[in-house]
């Protein structure tokens, strides 16, 4: 199940993040030196995410599996005007990885972005060594559109990212038409 992130998720979020610290920390954004502290508490994270939701610049979602908090998909950097695009990021607890949950959740979020939200393009930026996340965009059929050297400060340093994107005209990716040959 996918639903909006709320204040009531605080304890579940904390437990899942603590239990999965080693699994998630190589991919978590960090504050570059001199930029000030990054919000570390759930209250500060939820406050920032809810503010972006109210401003129309972000959409934070919870991934639930069998009624349990399992991860998150966040639409961020929503740009309106002539661009109409956003970025999508996601994470999942290790015990749920590899079960097709994240590709399904991200596909639903993309549907929402292209439907009710009215965006034209979404992108997902992934570190080249993050094979689990690369598998997600591969399963979804998103195309690689670029490479961004030293793109985001992650795990204590500026990290390169591969950029994947899809537009509303390309979504959902279509399977090739079957070859209908007549048999004589």
Plain-language structure description:
The protein has 184 residues and is α+β, with helices and mostly antiparallel strands. It has a single domain, classed as Gcn5-related N-acetyltransferase (GNAT) (Aminopeptidase), CATH 3.40.630. It is 28% helix and 32% strand. It is built from five helices and seven strands, in the order βαααβββαβαββ. Strands 1-2-3-4-5-7-6 form a seven-stranded mixed beta sheet, with helices on both faces. A hairpin with a 2-residue loop joins strand 6 and strand 7. Helix 4 crosses helix 5. The C terminus is likely disordered.
Main attributes of the structure:
single chain; about 180 residues; alpha+beta; Aminopeptidase; 7-stranded mixed sheet; 5 helices; 7 strands; about 30% helix; globular; disordered C terminus
| SSE string, helices as H and strands as E | EHHHEEEHEHEE
- Which class of secondary structure composition applies to the elements? alpha+beta
Enter the CATH topology name: Aminopeptidase
The low-confidence runs, each spanning 5 or more residues with pLDDT under 50, are 179-184
Question: Class, according to the CATH hierarchy?
Answer: Alpha Beta
The rounded distance between the terminal residues' Cα atoms is 49 Å
**Strand order in the largest sheet:** 1-2-3-4-5-7-6
Tally of strands: 7
Mean pLDDT, nearest integer? 90
Question: What is the beta-strand fraction?
Answer: 25-35%
- Give me the number of helical elements: 5
CATH superfamily: Gcn5-related N-acetyltransferase (GNAT)
CATH architecture: 3-Layer(aba) Sandwich
Largest sheet: 7 strands, mixed
Helix content: 25-40%
- Count of the separate structural domains: 1
Radius of gyration in whole Å, from Cα? 18 Å
